[in-house]
Amino acid sequence: MKVLVIGGGGREHALAWKLSSSPKVSKVYVAPGNGGTASNARFENVPISDVAELRAWAQEQKIQLTVVGPEAPLAAGVVDEFRANGLRVFGPTKAAAQLESSKAFSKDFMQRHGIPTAAYETFSDPVAAHAFIDKLGAPIVIKADGLAAGKGVVVATSLQEAHDAVDFMLVDNKYGVTHNEGGARVVIEEFLDGEEASFIVLCDGKNVVALATSQDHKRLKDGDQGPNTGGMGAYSPAPVVTADVHARAMREIILPTVRGMEKDGIPFTGFLYAGLMIDGAGHPKTLEFNCRMGDPETQPIMMRLKSDLVDVLSAAVDSKLDQVELQWDRRTALGVVMAAHGYPESPRKGDAITGLPEEADDAMVFHAGTELVDGVLRTSGGRVLCVTALADNVKQAQQRAYDVARGIYFDGAQYRRDIGHRAVKQPA
User: Fold this and answer.
1) Is 307 helix (H, G, I), strand (E, B) or coil?
2) Among 81, 142, 247, 412, which is most buried by a count of CB atoms within 10 Å?
């Protein structure tokens, strides 16, 4: 069968890589793809981003399964367009994707359905927003209400930082974010303390299957210092998600969300990602929802998945997830993101990349911000590569991933040296 993966980042490379390993698949297309998918004969890049044009191409090519990776095409209604034309596609509709595309929609939904989350208020008036910050104090969390490529959240440790974030997002609208009713808007939340984890499930509208647990590292620098990023690395499984935390997350967050969306007349299909904050007593609260797999969590999760992803996603499209039981490699997978010079504020593009290793059973380099230019692989975005390794424990997975990363070169490359530090006593 022919399969299409929509997107061009590391998440999509990992999904395409896993799908291509299925004996049922003859060809995996990636739209638009990246330098990694361009330089591998198992994939074919499709340089189309317009939703209607891509749907017409998929019909013409007789694509039998489409998987949507990033948030922007979901918010643009790609699933609605494909479904309306008889194409099998895995992902949420435009209405359901509001769980991610509008922070205000998401918070109002959680409040309405009793899903544990931080207390919050929504503002489009800067004066009121500034007054609320002064009243609540710091630390405090400011979120742009809309899609900001994973960067629209500021955890402000001082009042000045919080006021600056409101000016940046609301007054100047530097992210260029427009919520569903137009204009800029921010959500201001109480600060939650604890340890974060990524809880990702598959949904078919009614049934839910949990993926392996994972933990992301958002800060740019070692020791969780520096600015927030789209993610500098991840590992799976995440020890912080104990059996009890897992059961609570399913019972108190995931299942009420799926039932709530169905009750509201917008059933959720696709990957549902709950960013959790787990307090010292093991109680999870929802930081945010994403309507897609996380990046870089996808890379370690796909390395551990033993089940045929084509079978799993086909069952999801057919509303038969209740018949699916996923098989996992018992080992730990850990991914280290190599980012471009200047990331996250102003990543430099065009640097040549050398030293990439051959694929190995226990190590893969997934591409994100890369492109093939006249046969030369070059940087083309902020997060460039995710070096992902599989080993018996976190420490060994760290060592394997960093051994590979040290052999790869591009000018100005930056990466953290402590991915997985929460799960081991000594960083790599």
Assistant:
1) coil
2) 142
